[in-house]
Structures are given as structure tokens and as C-alpha cells.
């Protein structure tokens, strides 16, 4: 009846990491924000290549894979803090937000497990199947939790959320009796605000999810860019915003993460 919520292993960390953990006791305040415009031609070329094979690929799917690959290069971000100790996840799972209705008012989600080891076509197929189940009201994991939230008076919600976060991640215990999905948020979250027509935005850390990094994609559009020859040219660019937990990632780690991410996005196909 009772199982581990997440498969974890304890790792040793530097004194600086311990200091950071002591400075920020939880994920409610160590947010670091960063943004940059990323050239999107590689993403679009990849999407067109798969389209020619009859596979529908979205920028969100490509970036989800890119984040997973980049996190493999910086494993310190793929961790959970429990009782003052760092625990690294055994796999890299990426959470994607999904609109459950036409208006985009009712949001749900899905987790792509072991995302760094899956080919893009498998990720695309999985996203399509799970999104369809959500929109057809056949998805169970997140819908049950949302129903419980609706029934509970608002004044009790913070206590319930904190309790679930404590049991699922601090105690690392999962049971169906909790009415919550098993490890429902994964290693990182990716959302596309560009699909809503927004140029960009900074997603907040979600403390109870224990998810240390959130990525938001803005609207892909032509922008003036100065090339290496000093000329102004039009290029397809996508605003890329990241929020991460400073207890797990610093500037050096963030630079490594972005380097690996950009390398993948240059030619994901």
C-alpha cells in the first residue's frame, strides 16, 4: 500500500551548498530569475523535419528534451532537499503544463519520465496521447487532486498543500490514499506562455512541488539581431525565462546549464 514517492540517493555537497541551504530554509525565497532571447531557427527546422515524417512536434517538446539533456550535464540541479540533506533524483523527469479546456482557464499537467533518454518522436507521441486524455477528461492522476481541492474550503488549502509536500517529499512517502499523483512535478517544469500570445514571463517556484527549476517559453517571432559582422539582420528568436532555486544552482552552474541547453537547441534534429 505504501511506496517511495521518488527514487532518491543521498549525495555529499560542498560547504557552500550547506551554507546556501541554511540561508534559505525552503523554496519560498531563494528564487533567481534569468532571461535571454535564443535563436529559434534550429527548433523550427527540427519541427519541420519531423512534420515531413508525419510527426507533430512543438517548441515545448523540443525545449523539454533540451532541459533534460542540459540537467544531465549539471546533476546538482536535479536534487531534492530533505531535512537538511541533498538527495539526487535517479532520473530526469520533465513536467509540462497543459490546457484542459479551449479557453486555457483549466490547467492540468503531465510528466515525461526519463526525458533525457527518450527520442523526440517518443516524447511527441507521449505528449499527444496524454494531452488527449486530459482534454477528454480521461486523465485520473491530476484530476482527482483537483476535485479534492475544489471541495476543500480555501482557508484550509495552504495547510493541505504544505502537508502533502511534507509527506510526499520530506518524508518521501506516497500512497493512493493521499489523492495526489506519485512524484507529480518531476525534475523541472516547462510552460509555453508564447502559445497564449505573450512575449515572455517569469514563472514562480512552486514550494510544495520541490521542483527547483521552471522554464517559460515566449512567443517565437522575427527580431532584429546584430550578427558577427556588426550588421543588423532579422532572425527567429524565442524569449527564454528561467526561475531556479539558488540553494541548488549558482551562477557557475547556471552558465553550464545554459551552455548545454544552447548546444542542443542549435541542432536538436
Would you mind describing this structure in some detail?
The chain has a single domain, classed as Chloramphenicol acetyltransferase-like domain (Chloramphenicol Acetyltransferase, 2-Layer Sandwich). The chain has helices at residues 15-23, 41-52, 59-73, 120-135, 141-151, 157-170, 251-266; strands at residues 3-4, 8-10, 31-39, 79-82, 85-89, 94-99, 107-112, 173-174, 188-192, 213-217, 221-226, 232-245. The strands form three sheets. Strands 3, 6, 7, 9, 10, 11 and 12 form a seven-stranded mixed β-sheet that branches. The protein has seven helices and twelve strands. The N and C termini lie far apart (43 Å). The chain is globular, with a radius of gyration of 19 Å. The mean pLDDT is 87. By secondary structure, the chain is α+β, with helices and mostly antiparallel strands.
Topology:
Elements: E1 3-4, E2 8-10, H1 15-23, E3 31-39, H2 41-52, H3 59-73, E4 79-82, E5 85-89, E6 94-99, E7 107-112, H4 120-135, H5 141-151, H6 157-170, E8 173-174, E9 188-192, E10 213-217, E11 221-226, E12 232-245, H7 251-266
Parallel strand pairs: 6-9, 9-10
Antiparallel strand pairs: 1-8, 2-5, 3-12, 4-5, 6-7, 10-12, 11-12
Amino acid at each position: 500500500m505504501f511506496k517511495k514517492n521518488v527514487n532518491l540517493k543521498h549525495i555529499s555537497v560542498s560547504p557552500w551548498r550547506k551554507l546556501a541551504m541554511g540561508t534559505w530554509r525552503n523554496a519560498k525565497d531563494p528564487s533567481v530569475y534569468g532571461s535571454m532571447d535564443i535563436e529559434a531557427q534550429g527548433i523550427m527546422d527540427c519541427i519541420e523535419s519531423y512534420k515531413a515524417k508525419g510527426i507533430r512536434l512543438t517548441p515545448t517538446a523540443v525545449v523539454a528534451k533540451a532541459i533534460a539533456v542540459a540537467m544531465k550535464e549539471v546533476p546538482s540541479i536535479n536534487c531534492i532537499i530533505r531535512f537538511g540533506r541533498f538527495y539526487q533524483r535517479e532520473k530526469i523527469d520533465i513536467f509540462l503544463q497543459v490546457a484542459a479546456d479551449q479557453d486555457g482557464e483549466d490547467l492540468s499537467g503531465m510528466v515525461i519520465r526519463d526525458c533525457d533518454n527518450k527520442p523526440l518522436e517518443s516524447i511527441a507521441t507521449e505528449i499527444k496521447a496524454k494531452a488527449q486524455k486530459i482534454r477528454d477528461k480521461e486523465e485520473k492522476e491530476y484530476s482527482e487532486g483537483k476535485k479534492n481541492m475544489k471541495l476543500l474550503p480555501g482557508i484550509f488549502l495552504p495547510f493541505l498543500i504544505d502537508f502533502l509536500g511534507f509527506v510526499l517529499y520530506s518524508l518521501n512517502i506516497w500512497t493512493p490514499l493521499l489523492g495526489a499523483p506519485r512524484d507529480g512535478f518531476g525534475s523541472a517544469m516547462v510552460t509555453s506562455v508564447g502559445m497564449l500570445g505573450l512575449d515572455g514571463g517569469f514563472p514562480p517556484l512552486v514550494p510544495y512541488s520541490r521542483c527547483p527549476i521552471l522554464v517559460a517559453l515566449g512567443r517565437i517571432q522575427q527580431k532584429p539581431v546584430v550578427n558577427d559582422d556588426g550588421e543588423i539582420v532579422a532572425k527567429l528568436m524565442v524569449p527564454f525565462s528561467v526561475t531556479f532555486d539558488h540553494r541548488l544552482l549558482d551562477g557557475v552552474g547556471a552558465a553550464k546549464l545554459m551552455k548545454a541547453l544552447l548546444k542542443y537547441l542549435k541542432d536538436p534534429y
